[in-house]
Amino acid sequence: MAMHADWIQSIERQLAEVPPGCLLESPVSQVPRLHRPGPHWAGRGRVETFSLFPGLTLSHLCFQSETFSHRHAALDSGLEITHCRRGRVGWEMKEGLTLYLGPGDLSLHPMDCCAHSTLRFPLGYYEGFSISLNPDTLSQALPPALALGGVSPQEILRRFCPQGHPMSLPAQTALDHIFSPLYDLPEALRLPYYTLKVQELLLYLSQQAPAGERASNQYLSQQVEIIRAIHDQLMAHPNQRTTIEALAKEYHLNTSTLKAVFKAVYGQPIASHMKHHRMQEAARLLRETDLSIGDIAQQVGYENQSKFSNVFRDIFQVLPTEYRRQQSRDSKTEGRL
Protein backbone atom coordinates (compact mmCIF):
# COMPACT_ATOMS: atom_id res chain seq x y z
CA MET A 1 0.00 0.00 0.00
CA ALA A 2 2.91 2.35 0.72
CA MET A 3 4.15 1.86 -2.84
CA HIS A 4 0.71 2.68 -4.26
CA ALA A 5 0.57 5.81 -2.11
CA ASP A 6 3.98 6.91 -3.46
CA TRP A 7 2.80 6.29 -7.03
CA ILE A 8 -0.34 8.37 -6.50
CA GLN A 9 1.69 11.22 -4.99
CA SER A 10 4.07 11.16 -7.96
CA ILE A 11 1.20 11.37 -10.43
CA GLU A 12 -0.42 14.18 -8.43
CA ARG A 13 2.85 16.14 -8.65
CA GLN A 14 3.00 15.67 -12.42
CA LEU A 15 -0.60 16.86 -12.74
CA ALA A 16 -0.36 19.70 -10.22
CA GLU A 17 -0.94 22.39 -12.87
CA VAL A 18 -3.81 20.54 -14.57
CA PRO A 19 -7.30 21.48 -13.24
CA PRO A 20 -9.95 18.76 -12.74
CA GLY A 21 -11.75 17.87 -15.95
CA CYS A 22 -8.82 18.99 -18.12
CA LEU A 23 -6.17 17.39 -20.31
CA LEU A 24 -2.81 19.03 -20.98
CA GLU A 25 -1.60 17.88 -24.40
CA SER A 26 1.81 18.59 -25.88
CA PRO A 27 1.58 17.43 -29.50
CA VAL A 28 4.67 17.03 -31.67
CA SER A 29 6.32 20.44 -32.26
CA GLN A 30 3.28 22.34 -31.03
CA VAL A 31 2.48 24.59 -28.10
CA PRO A 32 0.98 22.67 -25.14
CA ARG A 33 -2.81 22.88 -25.10
CA LEU A 34 -5.00 22.71 -21.98
CA HIS A 35 -8.57 21.72 -22.78
CA ARG A 36 -11.60 19.77 -21.61
CA PRO A 37 -11.91 16.45 -23.50
CA GLY A 38 -15.62 16.20 -22.74
CA PRO A 39 -18.34 17.82 -20.63
CA HIS A 40 -18.67 14.84 -18.30
CA TRP A 41 -15.02 13.85 -17.88
CA ALA A 42 -13.94 14.64 -14.30
CA GLY A 43 -10.36 13.35 -14.37
CA ARG A 44 -7.01 15.01 -15.02
CA GLY A 45 -4.44 14.03 -17.60
CA ARG A 46 -1.24 14.91 -19.38
CA VAL A 47 -0.02 13.60 -22.73
CA GLU A 48 3.37 14.59 -24.18
CA THR A 49 4.19 13.34 -27.68
CA PHE A 50 7.61 13.23 -29.34
CA SER A 51 8.46 12.48 -32.97
CA LEU A 52 11.59 10.33 -32.84
CA PHE A 53 11.88 9.03 -36.42
CA PRO A 54 9.78 9.17 -39.58
CA GLY A 55 6.88 6.86 -38.85
CA LEU A 56 7.51 6.60 -35.09
CA THR A 57 6.20 8.73 -32.22
CA LEU A 58 6.42 8.21 -28.47
CA SER A 59 3.86 9.54 -25.96
CA HIS A 60 4.17 9.85 -22.20
CA LEU A 61 0.73 9.47 -20.58
CA CYS A 62 -0.17 10.41 -17.03
CA PHE A 63 -3.76 10.23 -15.77
CA GLN A 64 -5.71 10.56 -12.56
CA SER A 65 -9.06 9.22 -13.68
CA GLU A 66 -11.07 6.04 -14.14
CA THR A 67 -11.53 6.38 -17.91
CA PHE A 68 -10.39 8.33 -20.94
CA SER A 69 -11.76 8.16 -24.49
CA HIS A 70 -8.85 7.45 -26.80
CA ARG A 71 -8.99 7.88 -30.58
CA HIS A 72 -6.33 7.51 -33.24
CA ALA A 73 -6.06 6.56 -36.90
CA ALA A 74 -7.04 2.94 -37.58
CA LEU A 75 -3.93 2.00 -39.56
CA ASP A 76 -4.08 -1.59 -40.81
CA SER A 77 -0.29 -1.75 -40.89
CA GLY A 78 0.34 0.34 -37.77
CA LEU A 79 1.72 -1.02 -34.50
CA GLU A 80 1.17 0.39 -31.03
CA ILE A 81 3.44 -0.61 -28.13
CA THR A 82 2.34 0.26 -24.59
CA HIS A 83 4.38 0.09 -21.37
CA CYS A 84 2.66 0.47 -18.01
CA ARG A 85 4.72 1.98 -15.23
CA ARG A 86 2.20 2.81 -12.52
CA GLY A 87 -1.40 1.82 -11.91
CA ARG A 88 -3.27 -0.40 -14.36
CA VAL A 89 -4.67 0.23 -17.83
CA GLY A 90 -7.17 -1.65 -19.94
CA TRP A 91 -8.90 -1.09 -23.25
CA GLU A 92 -11.29 -2.93 -25.49
CA MET A 93 -9.88 -4.54 -28.60
CA LYS A 94 -11.90 -5.66 -31.57
CA GLU A 95 -13.59 -9.09 -31.50
CA GLY A 96 -14.94 -8.41 -28.00
CA LEU A 97 -11.66 -8.77 -26.12
CA THR A 98 -10.37 -6.51 -23.35
CA LEU A 99 -6.65 -6.30 -22.52
CA TYR A 100 -5.23 -5.20 -19.14
CA LEU A 101 -1.68 -4.29 -18.16
CA GLY A 102 -0.11 -3.87 -14.74
CA PRO A 103 3.18 -2.26 -13.67
CA GLY A 104 6.04 -3.35 -15.91
CA ASP A 105 3.84 -5.12 -18.49
CA LEU A 106 4.17 -4.46 -22.22
CA SER A 107 1.59 -4.89 -24.97
CA LEU A 108 1.85 -4.84 -28.75
CA HIS A 109 -1.20 -4.57 -30.97
CA PRO A 110 -2.17 -3.41 -34.46
CA MET A 111 -3.46 0.15 -34.43
CA ASP A 112 -6.79 -0.86 -35.93
CA CYS A 113 -7.53 -2.97 -32.82
CA CYS A 114 -8.45 -0.04 -30.60
CA ALA A 115 -8.83 3.04 -32.80
CA HIS A 116 -11.99 4.19 -31.01
CA SER A 117 -11.73 2.65 -27.56
CA THR A 118 -12.00 3.88 -23.98
CA LEU A 119 -8.92 3.56 -21.80
CA ARG A 120 -9.84 2.32 -18.32
CA PHE A 121 -7.76 2.88 -15.20
CA PRO A 122 -9.18 0.51 -12.54
CA LEU A 123 -7.09 1.96 -9.70
CA GLY A 124 -7.94 5.57 -10.61
CA TYR A 125 -4.46 6.49 -11.87
CA TYR A 126 -2.00 5.52 -14.60
CA GLU A 127 1.40 6.41 -16.00
CA GLY A 128 3.03 4.82 -19.02
CA PHE A 129 4.48 5.18 -22.49
CA SER A 130 2.83 4.51 -25.84
CA ILE A 131 4.84 4.07 -29.03
CA SER A 132 3.00 4.44 -32.35
CA LEU A 133 4.83 2.95 -35.27
CA ASN A 134 4.16 2.82 -39.01
CA PRO A 135 6.40 -0.07 -40.11
CA ASP A 136 6.41 0.87 -43.81
CA THR A 137 7.37 4.51 -43.20
CA LEU A 138 10.00 3.62 -40.58
CA SER A 139 11.56 1.01 -42.88
CA GLN A 140 12.12 3.60 -45.59
CA ALA A 141 14.37 5.63 -43.29
CA LEU A 142 15.55 2.99 -40.82
CA PRO A 143 18.02 4.37 -38.24
CA PRO A 144 21.56 3.01 -38.78
CA ALA A 145 21.63 1.06 -35.50
CA LEU A 146 18.43 -0.77 -36.42
CA ALA A 147 19.65 -1.45 -39.94
CA LEU A 148 22.92 -2.82 -38.53
CA GLY A 149 20.93 -5.07 -36.20
CA GLY A 150 18.80 -6.40 -39.05
CA VAL A 151 15.57 -5.05 -37.54
CA SER A 152 12.46 -5.28 -39.71
CA PRO A 153 9.50 -3.31 -38.28
CA GLN A 154 7.12 -5.31 -40.50
CA GLU A 155 8.53 -8.57 -39.11
CA ILE A 156 8.03 -7.37 -35.50
CA LEU A 157 4.37 -6.67 -36.33
CA ARG A 158 3.91 -10.05 -38.01
CA ARG A 159 5.70 -11.98 -35.28
CA PHE A 160 3.99 -10.43 -32.29
CA CYS A 161 0.54 -9.78 -33.79
CA PRO A 162 -0.27 -12.62 -36.23
CA GLN A 163 -3.77 -12.41 -37.68
CA GLY A 164 -4.05 -8.94 -36.18
CA HIS A 165 -4.28 -10.17 -32.57
CA PRO A 166 -2.69 -8.28 -29.64
CA MET A 167 0.23 -9.66 -27.66
CA SER A 168 1.30 -9.01 -24.08
CA LEU A 169 4.64 -9.52 -22.37
CA PRO A 170 4.70 -9.70 -18.56
CA ALA A 171 6.99 -7.50 -16.47
CA GLN A 172 10.59 -8.69 -16.69
CA THR A 173 14.09 -7.42 -15.98
CA ALA A 174 14.97 -6.78 -19.63
CA LEU A 175 11.94 -4.53 -20.15
CA ASP A 176 12.58 -2.71 -16.87
CA HIS A 177 16.16 -2.05 -18.00
CA ILE A 178 14.84 -0.44 -21.18
CA PHE A 179 11.99 1.63 -19.76
CA SER A 180 13.01 2.64 -16.23
CA PRO A 181 15.50 5.33 -17.37
CA LEU A 182 12.79 7.00 -19.48
CA TYR A 183 10.72 8.14 -16.51
CA ASP A 184 11.61 11.22 -14.44
CA LEU A 185 14.26 12.47 -16.89
CA PRO A 186 15.37 16.13 -16.95
CA GLU A 187 13.69 17.86 -19.87
CA ALA A 188 16.97 18.40 -21.75
CA LEU A 189 17.69 14.66 -21.77
CA ARG A 190 14.26 13.37 -22.74
CA LEU A 191 14.56 13.42 -26.52
CA PRO A 192 18.06 11.84 -26.70
CA TYR A 193 17.14 9.14 -24.17
CA TYR A 194 13.84 8.41 -25.88
CA THR A 195 15.62 8.10 -29.22
CA LEU A 196 18.19 5.65 -27.83
CA LYS A 197 15.84 3.54 -25.76
CA VAL A 198 13.19 3.09 -28.45
CA GLN A 199 15.91 1.68 -30.72
CA GLU A 200 17.02 -0.61 -27.90
CA LEU A 201 13.43 -1.81 -27.49
CA LEU A 202 13.06 -2.60 -31.20
CA LEU A 203 16.41 -4.42 -31.20
CA TYR A 204 15.26 -6.42 -28.18
CA LEU A 205 11.88 -7.31 -29.70
CA SER A 206 13.50 -8.35 -32.97
CA GLN A 207 15.40 -11.06 -31.08
CA GLN A 208 12.45 -12.44 -29.13
CA ALA A 209 10.31 -15.49 -29.86
CA PRO A 210 6.91 -14.56 -28.41
CA ALA A 211 5.31 -18.01 -28.42
CA GLY A 212 3.20 -18.69 -25.36
CA GLU A 213 2.77 -15.08 -24.24
CA ARG A 214 -0.58 -14.44 -25.91
CA ALA A 215 -3.87 -14.03 -24.04
CA SER A 216 -2.34 -14.10 -20.55
CA ASN A 217 -4.32 -10.99 -19.63
CA GLN A 218 -7.01 -10.80 -22.32
CA TYR A 219 -10.62 -11.47 -21.43
CA LEU A 220 -14.02 -11.17 -23.01
CA SER A 221 -15.27 -7.60 -22.67
CA GLN A 222 -18.61 -8.89 -21.39
CA GLN A 223 -16.83 -10.68 -18.55
CA VAL A 224 -14.90 -7.52 -17.69
CA GLU A 225 -18.15 -5.52 -17.54
CA ILE A 226 -19.54 -8.04 -15.05
CA ILE A 227 -16.37 -7.84 -12.94
CA ARG A 228 -16.64 -4.05 -12.85
CA ALA A 229 -20.24 -4.38 -11.64
CA ILE A 230 -19.11 -6.79 -8.91
CA HIS A 231 -16.33 -4.38 -7.93
CA ASP A 232 -18.76 -1.44 -7.71
CA GLN A 233 -21.06 -3.50 -5.51
CA LEU A 234 -18.24 -4.47 -3.15
CA MET A 235 -16.87 -0.92 -2.94
CA ALA A 236 -20.30 0.52 -2.15
CA HIS A 237 -20.87 -1.85 0.78
CA PRO A 238 -17.59 -2.41 2.69
CA ASN A 239 -19.58 -3.30 5.80
CA GLN A 240 -21.11 -6.35 4.13
CA ARG A 241 -19.41 -9.72 3.88
CA THR A 242 -19.96 -12.15 1.04
CA THR A 243 -18.22 -15.11 -0.60
CA ILE A 244 -16.78 -15.71 -4.04
CA GLU A 245 -19.27 -18.54 -4.47
CA ALA A 246 -22.22 -16.24 -3.71
CA LEU A 247 -20.95 -13.58 -6.12
CA ALA A 248 -20.36 -16.16 -8.84
CA LYS A 249 -23.90 -17.46 -8.44
CA GLU A 250 -25.43 -13.96 -8.39
CA TYR A 251 -23.60 -12.87 -11.56
CA HIS A 252 -23.71 -16.24 -13.38
CA LEU A 253 -19.94 -16.77 -13.55
CA ASN A 254 -17.91 -19.76 -12.48
CA THR A 255 -15.62 -19.06 -9.54
CA SER A 256 -12.34 -19.59 -11.42
CA THR A 257 -13.33 -17.04 -14.10
CA LEU A 258 -14.46 -14.53 -11.48
CA LYS A 259 -11.16 -14.79 -9.59
CA ALA A 260 -8.97 -14.70 -12.71
CA VAL A 261 -10.69 -11.73 -14.38
CA PHE A 262 -10.92 -9.72 -11.13
CA LYS A 263 -7.19 -10.11 -10.54
CA ALA A 264 -6.41 -9.21 -14.17
CA VAL A 265 -8.45 -6.00 -13.95
CA TYR A 266 -7.59 -4.82 -10.44
CA GLY A 267 -4.19 -6.43 -9.89
CA GLN A 268 -5.11 -8.26 -6.67
CA PRO A 269 -7.27 -11.19 -5.56
CA ILE A 270 -10.72 -10.12 -4.36
CA ALA A 271 -9.94 -10.67 -0.67
CA SER A 272 -6.73 -8.61 -0.76
CA HIS A 273 -8.37 -5.83 -2.76
CA MET A 274 -11.28 -5.63 -0.33
CA LYS A 275 -8.99 -5.65 2.71
CA HIS A 276 -7.05 -2.67 1.37
CA HIS A 277 -10.23 -0.84 0.43
CA ARG A 278 -11.72 -1.41 3.89
CA MET A 279 -8.56 -0.13 5.56
CA GLN A 280 -8.46 2.96 3.34
CA GLU A 281 -12.07 3.69 4.25
CA ALA A 282 -11.28 3.12 7.93
CA ALA A 283 -8.35 5.55 7.68
CA ARG A 284 -10.64 8.16 6.16
CA LEU A 285 -13.18 7.72 8.96
CA LEU A 286 -10.42 8.02 11.56
CA ARG A 287 -9.26 11.29 10.00
CA GLU A 288 -12.64 12.87 9.28
CA THR A 289 -15.00 11.66 12.03
CA ASP A 290 -15.16 11.18 15.79
CA LEU A 291 -16.63 7.69 15.54
CA SER A 292 -15.28 5.17 18.01
CA ILE A 293 -12.84 2.51 16.84
CA GLY A 294 -15.55 -0.11 17.38
CA ASP A 295 -18.06 1.78 15.23
CA ILE A 296 -15.50 2.25 12.45
CA ALA A 297 -14.64 -1.44 12.58
CA GLN A 298 -18.29 -2.33 12.04
CA GLN A 299 -18.67 0.16 9.18
CA VAL A 300 -15.88 -1.56 7.26
CA GLY A 301 -17.10 -5.09 7.93
CA TYR A 302 -15.33 -6.17 11.15
CA GLU A 303 -17.40 -7.36 14.09
CA ASN A 304 -14.26 -8.00 16.13
CA GLN A 305 -12.51 -4.74 17.04
CA SER A 306 -9.29 -6.51 17.98
CA LYS A 307 -9.08 -8.24 14.59
CA PHE A 308 -9.79 -4.95 12.85
CA SER A 309 -6.98 -3.21 14.78
CA ASN A 310 -4.51 -5.97 13.87
CA VAL A 311 -5.37 -5.78 10.17
CA PHE A 312 -5.14 -1.97 10.26
CA ARG A 313 -1.69 -2.19 11.88
CA ASP A 314 -0.55 -4.67 9.22
CA ILE A 315 -1.42 -2.12 6.54
CA PHE A 316 -0.45 1.20 8.16
CA GLN A 317 2.18 -0.02 10.67
CA VAL A 318 0.31 1.71 13.53
CA LEU A 319 -2.83 0.92 15.52
CA PRO A 320 -6.00 2.90 14.67
CA THR A 321 -5.79 4.94 17.89
CA GLU A 322 -2.22 6.03 17.14
CA TYR A 323 -3.09 6.77 13.51
CA ARG A 324 -5.88 9.11 14.64
CA ARG A 325 -3.51 10.88 17.07
CA GLN A 326 -0.87 11.30 14.34
CA GLN A 327 -3.39 12.74 11.91
CA SER A 328 -4.72 15.12 14.55
CA ARG A 329 -1.20 16.35 15.36
CA ASP A 330 -0.38 16.83 11.68
CA SER A 331 -3.59 18.78 11.13
CA LYS A 332 -2.88 21.10 14.07
CA THR A 333 0.71 21.67 12.88
CA GLU A 334 -0.48 22.61 9.40
CA GLY A 335 -3.00 25.00 10.95
CA ARG A 336 -0.26 26.82 12.84
CA LEU A 337 1.86 27.15 9.70
Description:
It contains 13 helices and 13 strands. By secondary structure, it is of the alpha+beta class. It has two domains: 215 residues, Regulatory protein AraC (Jelly Rolls); 117 residues, Orthogonal Bundle (Arc Repressor Mutant, subunit A), CATH 1.10.10. Helix content is 45%, strand content 22%. Helix 7 crosses helix 9. 30% of the residues are buried. An eight-stranded mixed β-sheet has the order 2-1-3-4-11-6-9-12. The radius of gyration is 22 Å and the shape is globular.
Q: Could you write a compact summary of the structure shown?
A:
The chain has 337 residues and is an alpha+beta fold. Helices cover 45% and strands 22% of the residues. It has 2 domains: 2-216, Regulatory protein AraC (Jelly Rolls); 220-336, Homeodomain-like (Arc Repressor Mutant, subunit A, Orthogonal Bundle), CATH 1.10.10.
Any idea of the CATH topology of the largest domain? Jelly Rolls
Please summarize the sheet with the most strands.
8 strands, mixed
Work out the oligomeric state of the chains in this entry: single chain
Mean pLDDT: 89
Let me know the CATH homologous superfamily of the largest domain.
Answer: Regulatory protein AraC
**Proportion of residues in helical segments:** 40-55%
Output the CATH class name of the largest domain.
Answer: Mainly Beta
User: Could you give the order of the helices and strands?
Assistant: HEEEEEEEEEEEHHHEHHEHHHHHHH
User: Structural class given helices, strands, pairing?
Assistant: alpha+beta
Total strand count, please? 13
Q: Total helix count?
A: 13
What is the global morphology? globular
Strand order of the largest sheet: 2-1-3-4-11-6-9-12
Radius of gyration of CA atoms, rounded to a whole number? 22 Å
Q: Proportion of β residues?
A: 15-25%
- How many structural domains does the protein architecture include? 2
Architecture of the largest domain, CATH level 2? Sandwich
InterPro entries: Homeodomain-like_sf, HTH_AraC, HTH_AraC-typ_CS, PchR_regulatory_protein, Tscrpt_reg_AraC-type_HTH
Pfam families: HTH_18
Keywords: DNA-binding, Transcription, Transcription regulation
Domain HTH araC/xylS-type: 228-326
